[in-house]
């Protein structure tokens, strides 16, 4: 530091210390560790010279000390800045001493002059990074490095300067406030921070202001609360505002640093606008054939509000015959859909006038009533070509059964409801009258009978009649015609079932044999009443009589008790049944009565006359069962004997009856070409035999697994012979004699070649002449050449 600057700084410190000494009592001064050492800045030595000789410094070797030093942050001079100076009373010049500095930043940030004790800051300091440093000072012997005093701790504080602007950490901000809010309504609050020391000076004292956003909003300079500043802010006019907020330190004075942020303020909707129809009169043309529930038109009331505040509901509040239409609200489009509740008829009413209202669903209770609007709807009904209309949807007709063909059953009528009034033609849907039992007149709709009807077969006939306009055949309507067939008495009564009565031999006279009832297919209105009687030929029947029970049934009674099966086993009783129809109908029904043997209690046991000739305890059924078993046993025996007689004989063939061709297999050489008596010559044509397959003589060969023999060399007679025999064997493979193989050691005789074996020859091969083999033909030529070569050797 220049000497002039150091002198000025010393003067400042001297003045401050004088003021402090004068104002602070002596007892409040704090000594540093020992009396022989003091921690002083460069101005402390000067102070000692100024006050030397005064009584407050006359105490034994005690200096005034400070345990703190200060240095400005962000100092950027060309030389290291002097922070302070260390001094001890031992430094009198005769003792070589050395000042030692240790602790935070010692040697890197702070450096000390070992001789003078001056402390310098070597680097640029930032209070926001570190506000103070704790260090330790000690005096040692320069030669021996032995400590002369105990270490003393002190602090170097970094003094703050205004080097950090305010910052909005949470910005940018978004806020919302209802539209039409009162002036002074709070919107939101912003917060800025300053990294400078809030205690030292005004570096961190912030003041807020609005740079953009006036006159709509204002901000409190100290609390940073943003408020509404303008009355009647309407969302429908402007929905969003951008406000720029500034925070400035140094209390807002000149030279202070500042930071800005933005606040986006959105006005939220309130229901302050009523729905409004785009026009006061709506006109629609609806065809009269429009179906129930189908839409006929749409109306819409627009609302400048949004969301729930813009939703409306529609109603028909007035109009002629307003119950013909209804109006519903489409939740998606917010339109009113006009729908039909009742059918339209152009010929009856051609136009309608309705008054429709649209009202908000949500409203402010303070307003007293919801917002609403009305409009007029005029509807013109358009005439359409309608199908014919039957006078009744369903027709019920009646006809007597067995009525004659072409009888008129009834008439159906239909008309064209249009103003033009087209003529109508009638038809029967033949899908409902497959048997074509009815006809209809195409012009007047009269239904006639085409085939006779039987009530007992079908009581009801349901057919469909169509009516078609002559002018437009596509206009068709249908009606159901139900035809009931009325009953006439055309069926005679008959027994309700096939009765079979049983009469006990030991029965008593007057005993009820059978109760008989009748049925009638007819269905008279007054109900059935049947009359029973015996045929005239049997009015004086000596065996049976009938009694009326009064409920359309009769009881058949026996006249005596002398019925016997040996005399007559079965009786037939004809009975005439007559109904009460007009005209009456009757039929003769026969009751079969069987005479049976009964127990004393009257329980039927047997009704057959053969039971008398059977042994005691053996009935006819048991006898039949026994006879059936005997016949079955006889049939089984006959079948068994027949099968035994026709059983196949054993396949083992006696030697004297074995005339089959044989293939002889032996180890000795054969007797020549003429030796054909004891073996099949075909073996010579196939030396390999049949690949070792030896069929057995005692069983029938299995043709499925018999191997096929391959043909031998082509010969003249032998080859033809083999082919013929092979063809015969293929055509009749099961016919005897069966091929077999026999093994025995007979060579055969009569061969002109003699024996080919050398076992019975006394001479050697070298003594024999084999030239005769050449004379046997080309088959033995090669053999002769081989033996000739051996003899030459």
Automatic annotation (TrEMBL):
Subcellular location(s) of the protein: Cell junction, Adherens junction; Cell membrane
GO biological process, one term: homophilic cell adhesion via plasma membrane adhesion molecules
Membrane-traversing stretches: 12-33, 612-641
Domain of life: Eukaryota
GO molecular function: beta-catenin binding; cadherin binding; calcium ion binding
Cadherin domain sequence ranges: 88-168, 169-277, 278-390, 391-495, 495-617
PROSITE patterns: CADHERIN_1, CADHERIN_2
Keywords carried by this UniProt record: Calcium, Cell adhesion, Cell junction, Cell membrane, Glycoprotein, Membrane, Metal-binding, Repeat, Signal, Transmembrane, Transmembrane helix
InterPro entries, A to Z: Cadherin, Cadherin-like_dom, Cadherin-like_sf, Cadherin_CS, Cadherin_Y-type_LIR, Catenin-bd_sf
Membrane topology: Single-pass type I membrane protein
Pfam families recorded: CADH_Y-type_LIR, Cadherin
GO cellular component, one term: adherens junction
Main location: other
The protein's role, per its UniProt record: Cadherins are calcium-dependent cell adhesion proteins.
Protein name: Cadherin domain-containing protein
Organism: Oncorhynchus tshawytscha (Chinook salmon)
């Amino acid at each position: 530091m220049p000497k002039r600057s150091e002198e000025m700084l010393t003067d400042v410190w001297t003045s401050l210390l004088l003021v402090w000494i004068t104002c602070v009592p002596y007892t409040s001064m704090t000594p540093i560790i020992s009396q022989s050492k003091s921690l002083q800045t460069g101005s402390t030595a000067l102070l000692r010279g100024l006050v030397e000789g005064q009584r407050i410094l006359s105490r034994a070797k005690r200096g005034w000390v400070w345990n703190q030093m200060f240095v400005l942050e962000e100092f950027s001079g060309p030389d290291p800045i002097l922070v302070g100076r260390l001094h001890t009373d031992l430094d009198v010049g005769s003792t070589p001493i050395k000042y030692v500095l240790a602790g935070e930043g010692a040697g890197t940030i702070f450096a000390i002059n070992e001789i003078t004790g001056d402390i310098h800051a070597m680097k640029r300091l930032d209070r926001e990074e570190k506000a103070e440093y704790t260090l330790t000072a000690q005096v040692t012997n320069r030669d021996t490095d032995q400590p002369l005093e105990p270490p003393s701790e002190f602090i170097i504080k970094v003094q703050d300067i205004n080097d950090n602007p305010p910052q909005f950490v949470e910005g940018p901000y978004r806020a919302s406030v209802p539209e039409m809010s009162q002036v002074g309504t709070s919107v939101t609050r912003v917060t800025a921070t300053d990294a400078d020391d809030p205690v030292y000076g005004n570096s961190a004292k912030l003041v807020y202001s609005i740079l953009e956003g006036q006159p709509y909003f204002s901000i409190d300079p100290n609390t940073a609360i943003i408020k509404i500043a303008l009355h009647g802010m309407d969302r429908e006019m402007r929905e969003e505002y951008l406000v720029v907020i500034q925070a400035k330190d140094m209390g807002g004075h000149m030279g202070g640093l500042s930071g800005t942020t933005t606040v986006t303020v959105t006005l939220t909707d309130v229901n302050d606008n009523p729905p409004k129809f785009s026009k006061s009169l709506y006109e629609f043309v609806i065809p009269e054939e429009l179906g129930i529930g189908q839409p006929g038109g749409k109306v819409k009331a627009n609302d400048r509000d949004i969301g729930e505040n813009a939703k409306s509901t529609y109603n028909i509040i007035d109009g002629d015959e307003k119950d013909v239409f209804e109006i519903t609200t489409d939740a998606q489009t917010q339109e009113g859909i006009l729908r039909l509740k009742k059918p339209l008829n152009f010929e009856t009413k051609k136009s309608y006038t309705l008054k429709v209202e649209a009202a908000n669903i949500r409203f402010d209770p303070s307003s007293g009533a919801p917002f609403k609007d009305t409009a007029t709807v005029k509807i013109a009904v358009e005439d359409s070509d309608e199908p014919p209309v039957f006078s009744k949807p369903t027709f019920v007709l009646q006809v007597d059964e067995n009525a004659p063909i072409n009888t008129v059953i009834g008439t159906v009528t239909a008309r064209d409801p249009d103003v033009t009034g087209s003529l109508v033609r009638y038809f029967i849907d033949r899908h409902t009258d497959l048997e074509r039992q009815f006809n209809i007149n195409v012009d007047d709709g009269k239904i006639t009978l085409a085939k006779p009807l039987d009530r007992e077969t079908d009581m009801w006939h349901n057919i469909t009649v169509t009516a078609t306009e002559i002018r437009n055949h596509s206009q068709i309507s249908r009606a159901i015609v139900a035809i009931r067939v009325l009953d006439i008495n055309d069926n005679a009564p008959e027994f309700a079932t096939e009765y079979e009565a049983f009469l006990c031999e030991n029965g008593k006279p007057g005993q009820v044999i059978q109760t008989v009832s009748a049925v009638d297919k007819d269905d008279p209105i007054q109900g059935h009443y049947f009359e029973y009687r015996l045929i005239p030929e049997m009015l004086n029947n000596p065996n049976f009589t009938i009694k009326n029970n009064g409920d359309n049934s009769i009881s058949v009674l026996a006249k005596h008790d002398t019925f016997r099966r040996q005399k007559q086993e079965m009786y037939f009783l004809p009975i005439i049944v007559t109904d009460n129809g007009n005209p009456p109908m009757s039929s003769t029904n026969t009751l079969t009565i069987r005479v049976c043997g009964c127990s004393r209690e009257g329980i039927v046991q047997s009704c057959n006359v053969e039971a008398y000739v059977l042994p005691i305890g053996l009935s006819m059924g048991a006898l039949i069962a026994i006879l059936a078993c005997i016949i079955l046993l006889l049939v089984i025996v006959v079948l068994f004997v027949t099968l035994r007689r026709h059983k196949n004989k054993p396949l083992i063939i006696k030697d004297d009856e074995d005339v089959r061709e044989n293939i002889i297999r032996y180890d000795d050489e054969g007797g020549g070409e003429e030796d054909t008596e004891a073996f099949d010559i075909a073996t010579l044509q196939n030396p390999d035999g049949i690949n070792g397959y030896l069929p057995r003589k005692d069983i029938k060969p299995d043709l499925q697994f018999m191997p096929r023999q391959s043909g031998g060399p082509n010969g003249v007679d032998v080859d033809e012979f083999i082919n013929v025999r092979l063809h015969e064997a293929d055509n009749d493979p099961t016919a005897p004699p069966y091929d077999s193989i026999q093994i025995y050691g007979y060579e055969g005789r009569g061969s002109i070649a003699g024996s080919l074996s050398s076992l019975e020859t006394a001479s050697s091969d070298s003594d024999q002449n084999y030239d005769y083999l050449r004379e046997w033909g080309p088959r033995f030529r090669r053999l002769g050449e081989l033996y000739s070569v051996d003899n030459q050797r």
